[in-house]
């Protein structure tokens, strides 16, 4: 749990002094998008491993 809080603090602190505001919004949206893509890739890989897909 401490590791997740540390990552959260790093994420929040990295955008504190950023200017202009629209760039911060775009970067935050992009990081969420990348997180979703990474989660989908891990899910697809685990699904193939569990179902016995031949690589």
TrEMBL record:
A family per Pfam: DUF6747
InterPro entries: DUF6747
Key words of the record: Membrane, Transmembrane, Transmembrane helix
Transmembrane annotation, as ranges: 29-50
Name this protein carries in UniProt: Uncharacterized protein
Organism: Saonia flava
